[in-house]
Design brief:
It contains nine helices and no strands. By secondary structure, the protein is mainly alpha-helical. It binds zinc ion. Zinc ion binds next to loops.
Length: about 250
Amino acid sequence: MNVELAALALAPGLAVGSFLNVVAARIPLHRSIVKPGSACMACGTALAWYDNVPLVSYAMLRGRCRHCSAAISWRYPAVEAVTALLVAGAALRFGLTWSFAVAAAFCAVLVAVSATDLERRIIPNRIVVPAAVVLLAAQTLLHPSVEWILGGVGAGGFFFLAALAYPGGMGMGDVKLAFLLGVVLGRDVTVALLAGMIAALVPAAVLGVKHGAAARKMTIPFGPFLALGGVLALFAGHPILDWYLRVL
Ligand SMILES: [Zn+2]
């Protein structure tokens, strides 16, 4: 049943991903996400609908603008594909429920802020703050409990203290993103934070091996790793937390 729903969710998931590309490109520049329509970032030519079809147009154009041949970033099809898979995964996991709507919205926000953090090293307030407010309200209405607000305050507070202790390592954007993870995941946010921190160690170690002491001055955006941890906790937080507590 949910398998069919997940398959049906792929196409709207691609459309959401396409919209997230617009959000990620324009919100940091304080531009409207409604108009004008999409245009080539290099030559400014407005895109015809057939050059703006998720995944398909990128493949047909072989990653280049039809008019000026400027390369189109691989992030565009990547955002579309990842969003579609996450929305389909949420449909598979939660079925056609309000929890699916929360999960899909949560994943969409995580994809958007990962894209802005990778590209510009920012996690825009104009995305993460309204998302946290709406999703906190939704979770509290769907499953009345203080778990959601406590999860947000706990995760955000933990990162806030970490940011004070190591000012170079983490930004306030990461603090707000941790708050967002907490209000959606509740107690499972511990899984998200731990997984995110472990995942971020991998590129840090690679930089260290490649560049030695110079790597200390290089920074990696933390947002995408937190987002990865958030997705893991969304889909498998309960079993992972249970397993962890049993091992302890
Ligand atoms: Zn162009």
